[in-house]
Design goal:
about 300 residues, Rossmann fold, 12 strands, elongated
């Protein structure tokens, strides 16, 4: 069986070597398509493969249609909005992600961005985050790590996530669960966003929530740009010169934000959340192991689509 590793932004060599090793031991072949520049290259590469590993590469209906033998695609990372689940499901192709493999890297970035903003982007006198309030919007793998790190740094941590099944986790972590998104923002001097981009969440973070934050309110977004109502947030930041926004996902209006809000806005030059050697390796190896587990044993843990 043949596994395609299609990465416009390649894995580290140690990760690629590890993927090959896992596949070889399972009697499978690995084909690399790295730094490709055209859609046609990807369409040609998927034509005869049984499995596929991608990072942020888009698996569109056209790609699915071209992949005649494809049985499974794994997104090396947690977010999977680059996979077209309806077309994969229609073909009964299993789609998976690798939750938790990038979590520590993203959590460390979120905390680092908070400190950078608190310290005036290292350009003058700032404040400390100890003693401040931190809100976690979605208490999954990354959110929980951010919350625990915030507590270790002396912050009072609140969280909102109605999808957490075991509510005892909040008490165990020393985190206060709040009953609504509105309450979370009202209490949080620093707000760390970890919600996915869904029909319900897209454009949901904007003027009203930002305006409800305490003085010096700072929103840190390591999730998805689509969850931000950019016009609404910009309006709030214009009316309140104490509000700040730090993001690892470039806004559509990034030039406007950078020009209008200067030291109150931070945008990373590219998405940096999973850009650590450890995360790169962990996600790649997990993807390879999940493919082998499915093709050899039918293991569907982490399957995203149902059919």
């Amino acid at each position: 069986m043949k596994i395609l590793v299609a990465t416009e932004k390649p894995f580290a060599k140690v990760a690629t070597d590890g993927i090959k090793d896992i596949a070889t031991k399972a009697g499978m072949e690995v084909v690399l398509l790295e730094k490709y520049t055209t859609k046609e290259e990807l369409l040609a590469a998927v034509a005869d493969v049984d499995a596929m590993i991608v990072r942020s590469d888009k698996v569109t209906p056209e790609v699915v249609a071209a992949a005649k033998n494809l049985k499974i695609v794994v997104r090396a990372g947690a977010g999977y909005d680059n996979l077209d689940l309806p077309s994969l499901t229609e073909r009964k192709i299993v789609a998976m992600n690798t939750p938790g493999q990038n979590s520590n890297a993203v959590a460390e970035l979120a905390i680092g961005m908070m400190i950078f903003m608190a310290r005036a982007q290292f350009g003058g006198a700032g404040t400390e985050i100890a003693g401040k309030t931190l809100g976690i919007h979605a208490y999954g793998n990354v959110g929980r790590l951010v919350g625990l790190a915030g507590k270790a740094l002396g912050m009072k941590v609140y969280a909102f996530d109605p999808f957490v099944a075991d509510k005892s986790i909040f008490e165990k972590d020393g985190v206060t669960e709040v009953g609504s998104v509105k309450e979370l923002y009202e209490k949080s001097q620093y707000l760390s966003l970890h919600i996915p981009a869904t029909a319900e969440t897209k454009g949901s973070i904007g003027y009203e929530l930002a305006m409800s934050m305490p003085k010096g309110g700072t929103i840190v977004n390591t999730a998805r740009k689509e969850v931000i109502d950019e016009a609404g947030l910009a309006k709030a930041m214009t009316e309140r010169e104490d509000l700040k926004y730090a993001t690892d996902v470039a806004p559509d209006a990034k030039e406007e934000y950078a020009e209008k809000f200067s030291k109150r806005y931070l945008g990373t030059p590219k998405k940096m959340g999973a850009e650590t050697a450890e995360a790169n390796i962990n996600a790649g190896l997990a993807a390879a192991n999940q493919i082998v587990g499915y093709l050899k044993e039918g293991n569907t843990k982490f399957q995203l689509n149902k059919f």
